[in-house]
Amino acid sequence: MHNIYVSGSSKYLEYIGVYNADASIWGEVSYWFGARLGIRHCSLCDVTHGKFRKRADWVQCSESLGVSFLTYHRNDAPQDVRDAANGNYPIVLGRTTTGIEVVLNNAQIEACKASPKSLIAALQSALKS
Predict the structure, then answer these.
(1) Within a 10 A sphere around the Cβ of 128, how many other Cβ atoms?
(2) Whole domain around residue 27: which residue ranges?
(3) Which of 7, 42, 101, 108 is the most exposed place for a label (fewest CB within 10 A)?
(4) Left (φ > 0), alpha (ψ -120 to 50) or beta: where does 87 sit?
(5) pLDDT of 95 over the 60 cut
(6) CATH number of the domain that 121 lies in?
(7) Is residue 2 scored above 50 in pLDDT?
């Protein structure tokens, strides 16, 4: 789990991103090589990470959200998060006082074209709908 805390208010108590990748040495290595060869892809990974580490522009952009943005791999997410994702990865969820709901699906994340600014704009747009 990675936690980026930011201050402010939102409809959501927190955002939860779940990568289409597994958390393990083998999972990380296999995803890295698969992504380079074009056989593995995670649109959320493209937004939040560069080739070797978290993108600085993602960290900076996420600070505008007003709430924390937690990230998990599909195999290390808590059960309530996995239940809300319903096997659809990558995904961005939002935790409310009553539960967890889908904020952005893979197609919506993919439409951001690996841009942290575009993902933040999509999250802000989802708040208005």
Answers:
(1) 6
(2) 2-128
(3) 7
(4) left
(5) yes
(6) 3.40.30
(7) no
40-69 confidence digits (pLDDT tens): 678 998 899 877 778 899 998 888 888 999
3-class SS of residue 86:
coil
Cβ-count burial 35-54 (b if 16+ within 10 Å, e if not): beeeeeebbbbbbbbeeeee
Both tokens assigned to 82: 């996995």
Report the predicted TM-score, pTM, of the whole model to 2 decimal places. 0.81
Looking at mean pLDDT, say which of 3-17, 20-34, 71-85 comes out highest.
71-85
Task: Bin 17: left if φ > 0, else alpha if -120 < ψ < 50, else beta.
Answer: beta
d(CA 45, CA 107): 14
* Cα–Cα nearest to 49, from 34, 36, 38, 59: 59
